[in-house]
Each structure stands twice: as structure tokens, then as C-alpha cells.
Design brief:
Length: 718
């Protein structure tokens, strides 16, 4: 295997709606670069990119795949991603590693929801974008309409480099507006014959050529001057302008292909090899010392892991991009995220599941490592002496949750291990072992996402498991002050138990102060604060424990035991067994017995007094509320808003952005179950949303009654 220098490498990420033809295009690119001898197909289940069993079963990509091909003395790393938004993790990590994105548009449908979503992902990370209109051989094509949609959605920087001369069945000719030639393909596709533009296309081509020149000149001042003085630009000058326009996202050039018939792919590749941005054209990543790290092969070795996966017979594979220096086999490095030492004993480049061993890789290149011990996505490996880290890939917040349980208890441990592996491969799947809900909760991007996770458990890990409705992490709190006292007394045989505690509890609000008197049922109780402890509860909120004991009625040594008793009830709230929060407890009196008082007695007295006081203090259930942001096409806005209202949602605001309306709302988590599926059916799959925990708030009375009733029934069952 040849070693490629930094300036000989291109890193591409394929984007586009599901079914637009990314995987088919990747296959054609590999074939044109002689990386494979035969082109596989989706239907034949034999593409290099879609090699996993689930991808064969479903006929689409589920994970991102790293591929490469070699052409004109350059190495093109290709990252093929799934188009379905449930699998956006692979898109986000691939875009992170790529220096240029190639958006595939299915000419039958033009710009689809997935194209829109991917466009935004690329925009968020400022990656250059090239547009590729695919499927021009199909019987139902409409190139003009697709171009119109691209301009409408992506703006006026969409510029044609090519257009089809004969779209539809039999498509084999492309008018190249840059070269001002026609590309004619043989029936088996492959390399084009370059011929003159036929007379009937001359005017249109000339007009588009001028538009292209103007756009190219716009991206560079010196080109603009040349254009003004000569009234035109040469092919090389236009190319220079286009290259510059692409890098700054000031231009989204459009190419034409049929990936299936390998038409147009050679000219697209030729453009990529010569004009598409490479790692040296983009801003260098900044390390944790605030320094730009240039892709300098002579610099210190530093690599960033953008993807981890698990392969049969091999185990963990870590895919990396060399940010600086060069990596060689057997290099010792330090993982700066956990300060452990790793050895790069085997270095690979990958095309799907096929790996080729290499001895070194230069800055800008993408490769894979096996047999690392403590390294995974978002980690950085440095040559000894540096502890650089880089900005991490930011995966989206989960927006769909389900509970999971192994069908057989004996599989519990195996299930835990499998879920950890699933998370390693797809960081957008998050596993939570909830002690309070007594459930394992799996968070993901949508119902389909988690169904595919279940497919892996069934078919790959062979752990039969059930997905159940997840419980809601309610909280309990109080709304008014209450007093209670409790005497714990036990005399049976040997040593007795005695402890008596008087307490007042009241709602705690951030920043509020202790009171010196509390009036309960017409009785004034004086509280002289001697000591207090503010406890930040692990589950959010606070418990403030105030010692107001005067005259030594309870020994200081029993105070922690009383607190322990209170905490036991805070962990299992009296209404629904949920965690309690935001309560201040004043312990102001009590009694001891010279012989029988001990810690257990005071713990129990504290626990029971707290429980009684809690029930008299206007207890309320709090529920988690989420900030939800929904992007919806204007024509569906009304439906989406009324649906939100039926979910007890509070719409906070609306704004418009291009063809979308953005709705911001606060919605209780309890009402968001299966929202992704509901929203999709309301909008024909044309909306997107995100959600993030906002706060806890009191549930309405009828909901509180229903929740308490459900808890009581559940307790009875157990
Ligand atoms: N007629 C025609 N069909 C195509 C073309 N390219 C792809 N297809 C077909 O379109 C379907 C989807 O192609 P894929 O390559 O799997 O699309 P994808 O973008 O990778 O889809 P996801 O992996 O789901 O995101 C397959 O049946 C392909 O055979 C093309 O140029 N012409
Ligand atoms: Mg695919």
C-alpha cells in the first residue's frame, strides 16, 4: 500500500435523504478508483459499505462506514452515512472527520426532509458542500424541479456545473458547463467520451457558463478584476474561483450522476480529486491549550478518535483522523482523556469490513486501530510529551426513551454488557440504570432507532429482552409548613429503645432564609437556629436540616441519626415512592432516656415524624418538564400546536426560518411518550424536533390523583 502525503488526501462525507443513493455512489467511487473489481448493489446485498446483517435485512445503511479509494495518485476517504434521522450519530461523527460533504439528491423527489436535516448538520459545523443529483436514469425524473428546490432551500449559492442532456431512461449524456463539453457514457458506464456540445444545447450551456463565471469571480477579488478586464475567465481561473467558493460555503456546485449505472461518477471524482477542499484548506482544530494544530506531517503525532465500533472476531475498532504528525505502527501514545498509555500495534485503513494493514499514516489521513485498551470516540492519542485534547463531537440530546428488561433474569448481566457495547458503537444511545424507577432506561433518537437496537439484542447478542413503557421520574415536595412529633419506644426483654423527636417542615426555595418562629394551627413555635446543613440532593433540589434544639433535650450525637431517618423517607416519598426535594426541616425538641436512647431509636423517630409531617404539609407531585423545539413545515403548524396542547404543552413562541416554522414549547415528559412517531405521522415525516430537560413542576390535581392511584395499584401487585 502506497503512503499518501497530506496534500494527496481528500476526506469526503456522503450526505442525503435515505434512499438517495449514497451507498450506491460510494460503490461506484470504489469501482472507478479500482478499489473493487465488481460493483455490488443494494438489492444484491453485496455493497462494500452496507456489510452488516441489519443493513442487508433492511436494505439501507444503519451505521456510518469508512471507505477509501485511490485515484490519480490521491487517496479519497469516503464516509458513507445512514440517511434516516434516527441514526444521525453516524452523520455527526462523519462530518466531524470530513473536510468536504457531498449531498446526494434523489432527482425523483428533489430536496427531501433528510436532505434538509443533513444540510443543517453540515451548516452547523461549517463544512463545505457539493450537491450531486442522482438517479437521472430513472423513468420519473425532474432535474429542473430539483434545482429549483435546491435553490429555494439552500439559497442562491447553488450553481450548476453540469446538467443532464437526456435525463430519464437511457440517460448517458451530461453537459459540462465548466469544461463546455458534453460527456457521453457507454452503456456500462465508467469513463466518458468527451465531445462537443450539440447545437441544441449551445445557447443554454453558454448562458449557464456565464452564470458560473460570475459566481466564480465573486469568490475572489483578483478573479473579479480579471473578469472585469477580460470579460471572461479561463477554465483554470473558474476552477480556482469555484474551489474558493466551496471552501467558504459561498458556493454549492451541482453535479449530475446515475450512481446505479456509473454515469457521471468519473467526472465527479475528477473534480473532487483536483478541486474539492482538503484538510489544509479548512481551519485547523484548536487543542486544549488554545493552539491551532495544523495538519503538519512534521509536527507531533496527535490523532482524534471519531468513531468506535465492534466487529465480529476482532472486537473494538477505533477510527481516527490524524490531526498532526504521522502515526507509525508500534508507536507508543498517551490517551489524554484518561492518561493511559496505548500502543498502536496494528494500523489499518478500511473499506467497510475489509482492512489493509499499513505502516504509517500522515496528517489529514483516516485510519483504524485495534487492540486499544481504554480508548473510544472523542478521545485523543498523543505522542508522549503532549496532553492535547480537542473539541469533542457533540451528539444530539436523546429524545425517545424506553424501559428494557431481559426476559430471563439470568441474562441481566449479559444485557448490561451488550448495552454498553451498543452505546460504544452509537453514542446517541444512552443507557441509564435508574435506581429510583427500578428500570433500565434506554434513551435514543426515535422509536425506529430503539427497535433496531432491539434487533441487535435479538439477532447479534442473542439476549431476548422486552421493551416496556418507561416510568416517569416524579418528585415529591410540600406546599406548606407542618409540625409532627414521634416517640419511638420499645421495651422487650434486654435493652430498650427510646427516642422522641419534634419537628417542623416547610417548603424550601432557593435563597430563602430560616424563620425564627412558625405558626402551626394557631400555635406559635419558637425556633432558635443553632446549626444547619444544606444537602444538595443527588436527584436535584435540596434538603435543609436545621438544628434548633435548646437545653440539650436531644444530644448532638443523635442529630445525624435523625437526619438519616429523614433521608430514608426523602428517598422513598410518601405519595408515590419518588424522591422528595426542596424541604427544610427544623428539629426543635425531643426527649431522651438515660439508658435506652440510641441511634436506631432516633433514626426511626426522625423517619416517622418526617413522614407524618410530610402528609400534613400539602404534599405535591412534581413532574419533569422538557423544553421542546420543533421545526415544522408551515402547512402543518396548526396540527402540531393543537397536538402539543392536548399533551398539556405550553407553547412559548413561534418563529420562521426559511420554509420552516419553529415552535418552542414546554411539555411534561409523561406526555412525550412516542412523540417522534406521532409527529412523523402528523407531518408526513417532514418535521424534526429536539428536547432537553428544563425543570420540575407541580402536576395538576387530576394527574396527581391518577399517579397516586397507579402507584397504589402497583404496590398491591408487588
Ligand atoms: N434508478 C436508480 N436507482 C438508484 C440509483 N442510485 C441508487 N439507486 C437505488 O436506490 C435505492 C437506495 O440506494 P442506496 O444507495 O441504498 O441509498 P442510500 O442513500 O445509501 O440510503 P440510506 O442508506 O438509507 O441512507 C437502491 O435500491 C438503489 O439501487 C440510481 O442512480 N438510479
Ligand atoms: Mg446507504
Amino acid at each position: 500500500m502506497k503512503t499518501y502525503q497530506t496534500d494527496q488526501i481528500k476526506n469526503l462525507c456522503l450526505l442525503g435523504n435515505s434512499g438517495s443513493g449514497k451507498t450506491t455512489l460510494a460503490e461506484a467511487m470504489l469501482f472507478n478508483g479500482s478499489a473493487i473489481e465488481r460493483r455490488g448493489t443494494i438489492e444484491g446485498k453485496n455493497t462494500v459499505s452496507d456489510y452488516r446483517p441489519i443493513e442487508h435485512e433492511n436494505g439501507n445503511s444503519v451505521f456510518s462506514t469508512v471507505l477509501y479509494t485511490e485515484l490519480q495518485n490521491k487517496k479519497i476517504n469516503i464516509l458513507d452515512v445512514p440517511g434516516l434521522d434516527d441514526f444521525c450519530g453516524g452523520v455527526i461523527s462523519s462530518l466531524h472527520a470530513a473536510d468536504c460533504a457531498l449531498m446526494v439528491i434523489n432527482v425523483q423527489n428533489g430536496v427531501e426532509v433528510g436532505s434538509d436535516i443533513h444540510f443543517r448538520h453540515a451548516e452547523n459545523v461549517h463544512k463545505p458542500l457539493i450537491l450531486v443529483v442522482n438517479g437521472l436514469d430513472h423513468e420519473k425524473t425532474n432535474f429542473e424541479k430539483s434545482v429549483e428546490m435546491m435553490k429555494e432551500r439552500f439559497g442562491n449559492d447553488v450553481v450548476l456545473i453540469q446538467y443532464p442532456a437526456n435525463e430519464g431512461v437511457g440517460f448517458n449524456s451530461i453537459i459540462d458547463i465548466l469544461k463546455m463539453k458534453m460527456l457521453q457514457y457507454p452503456s456500462e458506464g465508467g469513463a466518458a467520451k468527451i465531445v462537443d456540445i450539440p447545437a441544441e444545447h449551445k445557447d443554454k450551456a453558454a448562458e449557464l457558463h456565464n452564470a458560473l463565471i460570475e459566481k466564480a469571480a465573486e469568490s475572489d477579488e483578483s478573479l473579479m478584476e480579471l473578469f472585469f478586464s477580460n470579460d471572461t475567465l479561463t477554465e483554470d481561473e473558474i476552477k480556482k474561483g469555484i474551489a474558493k467558493g466551496i471552501v467558504t460555503r459561498g458556493m454549492f456546485p451541482v453535479f449530475c450522476i446515475s450512481a446505479k449505472n456509473n454515469v457521471g461518477v468519473d467526472s465527479l471524482l475528477d473534480f473532487i480529486v483536483n478541486e474539492a477542499p482538503s484538510v489544509t484548506d479548512l481551519p485547523a482544530p484548536v487543542n486544549s491549550k488554545g493552539k491551532e494544530v495544523k495538519p503538519d506531517p512534521a509536527g507531533p503525532a496527535s490523532v482524534f478518535i471519531f468513531k468506535s465500533s465492534i466487529e465480529e472476531h476482532i472486537g473494538e475498532i477505533n477510527y481516527f483522523k490524524v490531526y498532526s504528525g504521522k502515526v507509525t505502527e508500534n508507536l507508543d501514545v498517551i490517551n489524554s482523556n484518561n492518561s493511559t498509555r496505548e500502543r498502536l500495534s496494528q494500523l489499518y485503513i478500511c473499506a467497510g469490513k475489509n482492512r489493509t494493514r499499513v505502516s504509517e499514516l500522515y496528517a489529514g489521513d483516516i485510519g483504524a486501530l485495534v487492540k486499544l485498551k481504554n480508548t473510544r470516540t472523542n478521545h485523543t492519542l498523543n505522542a508522549p510529551g503532549n496532553d492535547w485534547k480537542y473539541e469533542e463531537i457533540r451528539f444530539p440530546e436523546p429524545k425517545y426513551r424506553t424501559a428494557i428488561k431481559a426476559q430471563s433474569e439470568s441474562d441481566d448481566e449479559k444485557l448490561g454488557e451488550a448495552l454498553n457495547k451498543i452505546h460504544l458503537e452509537d453514542p446517541t444511545i444512552i443507557i441509564e440504570y435508574s435506581k429510583e424507577l427500578k428500570q433500565i432506561i434506554v434513551h435514543g433518537q426515535g422509536e425506529y432507532h430503539l427497535n433496531i437496537m432491539k434487533w441487535h439484542l435479538d439477532n447479534i447478542y442473542r439476549i431476548p429482552a422486552n421493551l416496556n413503557t418507561p416510568k416517569i421520574p416524579y418528585r415529591e415536595t410540600i406546599t406548606k409548613a407542618a409540625q409532627a412529633d414521634y416517640r419511638h419506644k420499645k421495651q422487650s426483654g434486654g435493652a430498650g429503645q427510646f427516642g422522641e423527636v419534634y419537628m417542623i417542615i416547610e417548603p424550601y426555595e432557593e435563597g430563602s432564609r430560616e424563620v425564627s418562629m412558625q405558626k402551626i394551627a394557631g400555635r406559635e413555635i419558637k425556633l432558635s437556629v443553632r446549626d444547619k446543613e444544606e444537602i444538595d440532593l443527588q436527584w436535584g433540589g435540596k434538603l435543609v436540616y436545621v438544628n434548633c434544639i435548646v437545653g440539650g433535650s436531644i444530644d448532638a450525637r443523635f442529630m445525624p441519626a435523625i437526619l438519616r431517618g429523614i433521608m430514608e423517607k426523602m428517598e422513598v416519598g410518601p405519595l408515590t415512592g419518588s424522591y422528595a426535594r426542596d424541604i427544610r426541616v427544623y428539629v426543635y425538641d425531643g426527649k431522651m432516656h438515660p439508658v435506652d436512647s440510641n441511634e436506631i431509636s432516633f433514626r426511626l423517630a426522625g423517619r416517622n415524624a418526617f413522614s407524618i409531617a410530610f402528609k400534613n404539609a400539602g404534599p405535591k407531585i412534581l413532574e419533569p418538564i422538557y423544553d421542546v423545539e420543533i421545526m415544522v413545515p408551515s402547512d402543518r403548524m396548526g396540527d402540531v400546536i393543537s397536538d402539543l396542547q392536548s399533551r398539556r404543552g405550553l407553547v412559548l413562541g413561534m418563529s420562521s426560518e426559511k420554509r420552516f416554522e419553529i415552535i418552542k414549547a414546554k411539555v411534561p415528559l409523561a406526555e412525550m411518550n412516542k412523540y417522534s412517531t406521532a409527529l412523523s405521522s402528523l407531518t408526513g415525516g417532514r418535521a424534526m424536533y429536539s428536547m432537553k430537560f428544563a425543570e420540575y413542576s407541580q402536576v395538576p390535581g387530576d394527574v396527581q390523583d391518577a399517579v397516586i392511584k397507579a402507584y397504589a395499584e402497583e404496590e398491591e401487585e408487588e
